[in-house]
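In practice, a research group might receive sequence data for several interacting partners and want a quick structural hypothesis before committing to experiments. The following worked case mirrors that situation: the sequences arrive first, and a predicted assembly follows.
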Amino acid sequence: MTLKIRSSIAMENKAPAVVLPMDTASIPGTIQPVNENKIEIQDFSFYYGNFKALGNINMLVPANQIIAIIGPSGCGKSTFLRSINRMNDLVPNIHTEGQVCLNGEDILGQGVDVVDVRRRVGMVFQRPNPFPKSIYENVAYGPRLYGIGKSHGLDEIVYNALKQAALWDEVKDKLHQSAMALSGGQQQRLCIARALAVEPEVILMDEPASALDPVATLKIEELMQTLKETYTIIIVTHNMQQAARVSDFTAFMMIDNPQTRTGVLVEYGPTAQIFTNPKNKQTEDYVTGRFG
Amino acid sequence: MARETFERQMQTILDQVLVLGSMVEQAVLEALDTLKRRDQTAARRIYEADLHINEKRYSIESGCITLIATQQPMARDVRFLAAILEIITELERIGDYAKGICKITQIISEEAIDPVLIDELQQMADQGLDMLRRALDAFVASDVETAREIPLEDARVDDLYNQIYRQLMEEMMADITTIDRANHIMWAAHNLERMSDRVTNICERIVYVATGEMKELDTEEGGNTGLN
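A structural hypothesis for the assembly, expressed as tokens:
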């Protein structure tokens, strides 16, 4: 497929191409991206019935980067995030326009295996939601669905996932104890391990630290930096300092007007730029806390 | 309006920067006055009063750091506070130049100085301080255009400095007994010349706050004329 790349911007020596919306599209300098694009979103709109919840979103997500999505409540951040692994399919009476391509393939297309999409694009939610099972079984749950048993190296998969989620050392002696006995922060890292166990390519995080204390939050943030070496991460957060701390790129969304209330992408760029010198007045007002 | 407390705190810091600017301006004028009048007592007093300028600078710096740590300023706000940290350093250095001139007053003591030189030094100070006043006004008004124009006036200060330099060189060549005194006068002129360079740095920060652009401003339309 061919994507309309309106502009590209450089960020230090890594310069992934990003589709910049509207008035920032004139930023000069088209630079060949170092990282290929993992996700390419083109003219994406999302409807709940007749209500257009998201309008004409264009965005390129470079591989192995962390992208933060910020914006006021109700602007469609979570709807947008959940579109990237078709979680919204569970909601009745929705439809979409445009394309969301993962490795160049439109995941919204006909005949796409939705279960496989959700395996490739894992998700971590606001509140840790471990299954009421053992720590081991929580992580093994996904691989088991794909028919992977002990004889196929399930133990190793569980070990690797827990290790990658920086949880192994804390749980290695109690793998068969209930996951519900873990602390909130540990439970959230277990949920990350559960997502990693099915070998995803992208991890979506919807406010993953909002229910955690500052120490547990920092652990998740540090973990994200390790995970991005292997995965592409998109995080929705209300915490702007968190977006500024963890992400490489930041997307600012808001509703287009109070009548239609359609969520649009206002500005998308390197995080350093969004938080020190945003190009759009609405972004400036939002990040400085003067609106939203 | 959101963040009223934060905006009030930012305004307080800005007010303090203007107070520091006034203190520095006063110090430069009085320092030059001590040189004109050879007022040793006043020179000592102004020399010691530099301490208050330093204290004011540290107090503003501390206020900025507190706001950064507690309010997590972003975008224009963080540029504004970062600029203030730079601007107060420049102002404090201008205060040091005033202090340096007082030191020269003390060293030169009763030796005679050509009134023409004194007049030229006064012109340098007036020009530099006028640039400083307008730069601080431009900072308050976020007036980028004025901030870009002010450094172009630095050439006038450089011209006066070059004039003083040549005159003193001639004096020294004609009479080697004047070397010591002439050197000190040259140092006073150098301090005033550096003052207007500091104003240019302040203007660069004003442009940065307004545009996010961090680069040196032209101080003249052609090449470099200064001896610095």
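Before designing any experiment, note the following. Chain A touches chain B through 14 residues (CB under 8 Å). The first strand of chain A starts at residue 37 and ends at 48.
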